[in-house]
Amino acid sequence: MIKKIGIGLVVLIAMYVVLAMLGPSNYKVERSIKIASAVENVYNQTSIYANWAVWSPFKKADPEAKYELGDDNQKIGGSLSWSGNLSGKGSMTTIKVTPNEKFLYKLEFVEPWYMAMTSSGGFIYEEQEDSVLVTWFNEGDLGFMSRPMVLFRSLEDQIGPQFEQGLVAIKEICENMKPTLVVSEETVESKSILYVSESSSLMSSEIGAKIGAAYGEIMSLVGIAQLEMVGAPMSITRKFSLAEMMVEFDAAIVVDEIPEGLEISGRIEKGDTYAGKALKTVHVGPSTNLKATYDGLIAYIKDNGYEINGNSWEEYIDDPTKVPSEEVRTNIYFPVK
């Protein structure tokens, strides 16, 4: 019996070695798309790792993975690392940068052992008359022991569709960027709110679902207690960390008055919003473009001598289930001094 098992193992090892000899020793996968936007927009969207939180196809594959940024400055040495149950452990490190022409990175998978490999990839930008042709690629050598696996499912089949998804998302973001940002200074009054505290990875697609679930809990209490909702649903940002690629927020509903004897249970809490000077801008379009609007508003704050004086918040003016995504309005506020 032991002899038969030994012979079987030898045969399996021999078959694996033969398949390894037949398998490819290297690979290259690339996809391209034409984007009707300024090359600077496309370059910034793809060369700033923090922006990957909005469009990366990999976040859908492993939404619970944890991410960490290192020197995300569009220069050599910048990095993004991750650790997840499905995506394993690895990192991307910038190795070559030519603004608006080329952005290259080294990709390393270190865990689990059967995924361990090092490759290179990046984006190539070619300006055309009214658009940019952007190419996303990944290439590298295949270790001897990993070659049999790609005989049955090629890396082209694994990576190609993900690149296509990512490029389509980048195209949507860049083509819907607004050329100007209208900012107004306002004095806002404090409001009574019921809220639920939540957190999420910036690379997760579950933020909207978590906000929706929180609103459902709050509105159930509002209905039972016969309270009056007197403002747009809100989300107050308590912590936003690009280094940790995560956000903590309060999903809140504004009500006219909260009775002192109101019994509150579960995750719901009561409180009051900020009162004082704030800067406001209106984001029009899908949530995938929100980061660009935030970047613009933060730059406006710095350029005009303001200082951020507390937590920013959003007001959701339109119901995204009833209004086309390109017309959805979101008020963004920053308390300032």
What does the model show?
The chain is α+β, with helices and mostly antiparallel strands and 337 residues long. The protein has two domains: 20-174, START domain (Alpha-D-Glucose-1,6-Bisphosphate, Chain A, domain 4, 2-Layer Sandwich); 183-335, Regulatory factor, effector binding domain (Multidrug-efflux Transporter 1 Regulator Bmrr, Chain A). Helix content is 29%, strand content 36%. The protein contains eight helices and 15 strands. The strands form two sheets. The chain has an eight-stranded antiparallel β-sheet. The protein has a seven-stranded antiparallel β-sheet with strand order 1-7-6-5-4-3-2, with helices on one face. Helix 2 crosses helix 6 (155-175). The longest helix is centred in the N-terminal third of the chain and has 21 residues, at 2-22. Residues 16-22 have low confidence and may be disordered.
Helix content: 25-40%
Largest beta-sheet details:
8 strands, antiparallel
Shape descriptor: globular
Helices and strands: which structural class? alpha+beta
- Please name the CATH topology of the largest domain: Alpha-D-Glucose-1,6-Bisphosphate, Chain A, domain 4
Our measurement of the CA-to-CA distance between the termini, rounded to an integer number of angstroms, reads 81 Å
- Strand order in space, largest sheet: 8-13-15-14-10-11-9-12
Low-confidence residue ranges? 16-22
Report the C-alpha radius of gyration, rounded. Answer: 25 Å
Indicate the CATH class of the largest domain.
Alpha Beta
